Fold:
Amino acid sequence: MGLITREKETAPCTVTISHRFEELSAHVRLNNGAVVNPGDTVEVQGPEIMAAYGEVVSEDRTAVITRASRLEQLWTRATGDLEFMELCEFSFSEEALQ
Amino acid sequence: MNAPTRDLAHSADAKTAEEGLAAENMSGPVDSKMATDVAMQNTLLTPRFYTTDFDELDAIDVSPVRAEWDQLIARMKADPNKGHFKKNADWDTVDWEGMDPKLRAEFIDFLISSCTAEFSGCVLYKEMKRRGKNEDVTGLFQLMARDEARHAGFINDALREAGIAVNLGFLTQAKKYTYFRPKFIYYATYLSEKIGYARYITIYRHLEAHPEKRFHPIFKWFREWCNDEFSHGEAFALLMRTDPKITQSWQNKLWIKFFLTAVFSTMWVRDHQRPAFHEALDVDPAWYGQEVFRKTSEISKQVFPLTLDIDNPRWRRGLDRLDRANREIAAAKRQGGVRGKLRQWAGSAKAGAAFLGLLSIPSQRNEVPDTSRLEPAY
Structure:
């Protein structure tokens, strides 16, 4: 890993979407054991994946992982905590409605 | 990919704009405004993605709280709420058309925000389950992911009734992973689950006494829903009790005070931005806020070594100052331009000062009991 350079790699992945009454969820699993670290970016390739209501869809795709540089990783580790409010649920969005 | 147009009862089931327009609920003259509306009523869910120190999570040893832990996990596995999230005769028809547009906008914001929160919780818990190796911990996160996905599905259904479809397009967009230390996840999610319980149960009890104010059937499901939130909070309380340092060191006490103040004051400000919602329920947001803080404080005595002094006169004054500053910021954003920007900065400075004022109110010490297990009692 470079101090300021980013590297890209690809990983096979499976995207699973459940769009049902009893479960609404969506997950991306990297199938080669690649580990996502702070500051890394993951992008699943290909067209948008849709599941109609009532369906569970599972598709194998390729994901591009853009590795954060060493500096970026340190920065994300140091500052990520400050975004903790995103973990909290407040029932309403931040913006005032007009 | 061009999917053939199917016959649909509702545009919320549509995969494409064409299908949406062809759906039964869209019969009647279609103009370009309606076509835009169909496209716009596709709400993009935007969950965030996090990573944490998975080695630290794996190192958790639940032995000090083993008996309580096993009991809680067994109950969650038994899944007493499984049959609850079903629509039955209690789900009466909603008059979306007749709803005051302001109330409708605020209520839909409520549904979308709640759905996103449940969905994000599910993503986070599932990720923790997948990356962890400690079976106690991964087992817990699996169960919590199950509940959150179930809640998200239930709210999604209510949204679909209002003609709004969630869009999961984020899956194929670039996602940046941010980082939280495990203890920040404990504090934030513990508080989030417990305050969620207090928020839902307070509304539920209010509507029990005033059923005529219940403008949507989803409120009838709040009690069982919040019991799930309650038990998730119990699990995080136990996780924090596995290591006394997490709550007892002086730095961490400061963090806890900071989290409590930040979460309570954010809730206050956001609720006050939704007057139509609270008016329709006939709930005074100030009364509601203090009531929720009181319940959350009482519950959090199970694990936090301090509570906020919410009866201190400075508390309410500080919240009001924060609320005013927030309104100024919103007005300045609408104004735009250089003057707007300057007003926005001035508002932010006032909000920061108000928050520091709240933070400087001395907290009340709490002796944490030997066992933490609580039952939902409100």
Notes: Residues 101-131 of chain B form the longest helix (31 residues).
